[in-house]
Amino acid sequence: MHPVPASVLERAFRLMATAKAMTEIYETNFKFVSKYVHATSRGHEAIQLAVALQLLPQDYIFPYYRDDSILLGIGMRPYDCMLQLMAKRDDPFSAGRSYYCHPSLREADKPKIPHQSSATGMQTIPATGAAMGFWYQEANGQKPTANGHLPLVVCSLGDASVTEGEVSEAFQMAVLKKLPILYLVQDNGWDISANAAETRVADAVEYAKGFPGLEAVRVEGNDFVQCWLAVQDILEKIRTERRPFLLHARVPLLNHHTSGVRKEWYRDDLPEHEQRDPYPILRKTLFENGFSEKQLRQFEQEAADTVAADFEQSKNAEDPRPEDLYTHDFAPTPVTEERGVRTPLGREPKVMVDCALFAVEELMRAHPECLLYGQDVGRRLGGVFREAATLAEKFGDHRVFNTPI
User: Considering the entire predicted model, what is its pTM?
Assistant: First the structure.
């Protein structure tokens, strides 16, 4: 019996065929779809689908800009992705405001995706913060379990971004607090036009050795079955043991870095990368496990037809209207006017830092979910400018604490 159910293999292949067809139709219509710079997952599909298909609605994921197969895997349609590609009004992620594959999502039946800026490494800190939110809930006796499973966070990033200082800060905090997070590192050997030999002395697994407590695992990211089993094992451990992992997936880059940085301009390794294409590997796996050539061709044709139909539908979708500039900008606020007396009789003036301290204390008293953390704000000093003085004593070290710089 195959270790991956036939239903999973079929779904993964259908989605991989869809992702491949999306890349191809974008390339065919290059001039039209280059309104915004975009990148696709071509070559990265196996590891992305292996992760996405095992996430639960209570999980959080922070994708990076090449993760359109992750979006397909969590249940988004090609049409949804194309609306963002073409900056259309009904783009479900940003209403036409953000680049392709820069999603934000809060739907009940899918993993949650908080909004993030260009995900080139900076996503590691807010992703780690989301995992810290789960840690805090559990430390206070709240077990946000759904269907018998605790939630977790996945932070996806390219290996080149691991050299950034933000990533080190995130790794430190994940280990210090034993956070339920998976750092999914997709390594295609390239930054943009600079390759790994030029930009780093160690890959992510070697780098992770400097963070005892961050378990690092390697996987060939072009083999869906190997990826599925590795991800299955890691996610189960995170859900039960509540500790961080790093998964390093070696993948080929089969498309351009982005639509604005064409592979033919500088790549000298395309034949080698093409030999590691995940698509024929998964296709062969299905064929060897009872799927006929006729079935496989049918899956491919259905995927191509869906992509073509969704492309035409999204081309004809409505563009943003001028008045949409003022929608989705700020959440409504109950504070619409200043109240109270700025200089009450009989009260002494306070310096600004004390006013801030009093305001934070009011918030922390009113909201038990409110935390204060950062450099030197913990109990020992209470802030370089004493801006957090006495707060750790009043609210505890689990709510007021120091973090890495």
Answer: 0.95
